[in-house]
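INTERNAL AUDIT FORM
Audit reference: QA-55
Scope: verify that the stored structure record matches its stored sequence.
Auditor: D.O.
Record contents follow.
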Amino acid sequence: MNLPNALTLLRIFFVPLLVAVLVQEKSAIEIAGWKISNQMAALVIFLSAAGTDLLDGYLARRWNQITTVGMLLDPVADKLLVSAALIALVQIHLVPAWMAVLIIGREFAVSGLRSIAAAEGFTIEASELGKSKMVAQVAAIALTLVAADFPRVHPAATAALWGAMLFGLVSAAGYARDFWHRIDESVKERRRIELLRLERERRRELRRQRRLARQGLLNRAAPETRQPAE
């Protein structure tokens, strides 16, 4: 296993740790004599995990270590991290449940579209808006965690959450439009191929019938041209 893939797996392993820190009942965690709130500890874990997302992609491209496993694991790790963080924030009443449902539902919907597209033999590439969506989600979750200890940050956190949700919905609409366009092209191409096959079969059958007809005419003409025996 190369280093970029190891970083992607590390991001997945951060997920249960993040949830455990956020939902535990203690209001503060003591580390090396320093007391920090659950939310601040979760912020450090979350930003460390999000940092591996940037690092693994950079290293994979720089070292030419882009693998199929990495391409499959990376989006899964991103979705697990964001979904787990949002669900935990709903649990401790820092994020509205309906907003978390929309953001997480968008992730599963886009993943479903990509899976269907892959089964049809084509790939839906990530758009620039889709790439910005991950940055918006990380910023929104980080600001929400900060706002738990610093209420003055709450308006910025709320605005970031709305921005992340709108980014996600607009980019999902773009993916859906691209998906239906590609599916429509795929269906039309299959129909065209099927019509061409039927036309070839019709022509082949027509030639066979003409050949049989000519052979029948020759067989009927043969007795007439035969000379009577002496």
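Auditor finding: record pair retrieved intact. DSSP finds six helices and two strands in the chain.
Action required: none
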